[in-house]
Structure formats: C-alpha cells, structure tokens
Amino acid sequence: MTGRIRSLLALPAAALLFGGAAPVPPAAAGGSISITVTDLRNDDGVVRACMTSREDRFPQCRGVTQAYSAQVDAKNGQVAVRFDGVRPGRYAIALLHDENDNGKADRALGMMPKEGFGFSRDAPVRMGPPRFEEAAFDMGKGDRALQIRMRYML
C-alpha cells in the first residue's frame, strides 16, 4: 500500500478517536474550554469531540487517561461543545460529524471520509490527519473559547 493511500485511510480512522477515553474530571480540577463548531452541513447524527495532551495518541484518544471526550446532537450550521475541569497544559482536539451516529467514521471507496471532521487551530489536513503540534494549543488556569470549522471531503 502506498504512503498516500495509507495516509488517506488514516484520516477517517483518526477522526473516530473515541471509545475508551477517560471520563472528564470534576469541574473543580481546572478551567473550561468552550468550542463553537461551525460549518455543519446538516442536523443528522452527532458531533463527537476528543481532546488529549498525548502527542503520541493524537488524534485517536482511545485508551488515553489524559483524554476528554464529548458528544452533542448535530445542528445545521453550528453546535457548542464544552470540556470542564481542564488542567493547564498543551492539548489538541479532533472532531467527527458522525452523521449516521454509527460510532465510526464512514468512508467512500474505502479511503475518502464521507463525514465531517475538524481539528483545533483548524490544523491543515493534507494526505492524512494533522500532527499534534499543528493542532495543539496551550490551556492556562482560566477558561478558554475556541472555534473549529467542520470540513467535508465529499
């Protein structure tokens, strides 16, 4: 399998990121991150969000104890996602618009993502998901507001 095809296959798998993420710590443990997710193309399904401080596990947060996950109903245009109890540190966020709410990132022809995805800092997607450093941002002791644009390839 060529590197290009392998990278394209990794993108939807990377967008799925969820099962096994640790529960969010109590709000008293840190600040809040409020995320406005824009450019959703419809009301179908849910938007799944994952945030991690683990560079080696981004964008897949499975089994990561330093991960936060959230899910909200999709809404044409934009939705809000919030992480509470976030301790100071360096994090990256990955999103999936799971339009059919089947718990996975669906693909066309086995490689092209059929559903929307997004990353903090609107990190660029080239031949696969962005690296942690491209999506990473610093969280201080206070609250933080971010905006992430949902993108669709098909």
Largest sheet: 5 strands, antiparallel
* Proportion in helices: 10-25%
Number of helices: 2
* Amino- and carboxy-terminal Cα gap: 23 Å
- pLDDT < 50 runs, ≥5 residues: 1-9, 12-27
Class from helix and strand fractions = mainly beta
Instruction: Output the helix-strand order.
Output: HEEEEEEEEHEE
What is the 3D form?
A: globular
Extended strand count:
10
Question: What's the overall average pLDDT, rounded?
Answer: 84
From the alpha-carbon coordinates, what is the Rg to the nearest angstrom?
15 Å
Beta content comes to: 35-45%
Description:
The strands form three sheets. Strands 2, 3, 5, 8 and 9 form a five-stranded antiparallel β-sheet that branches. A three-stranded mixed β-sheet has the order 4-1-10, with no helix packed on it. Mean pLDDT is 84; it is low at 1-9 and 12-27. Helix content is 12%, strand content 40%. The protein has helices at 3-16, 132-135; strands spanning 31-40, 46-52, 67-73, 77-86, 89-98, 107-108, 112-113, 116-119, 137-139, 144-149. The protein is globular, with a radius of gyration of 15 Å. The chain has two helices and ten strands; from the N terminus they run αββββββββαββ.
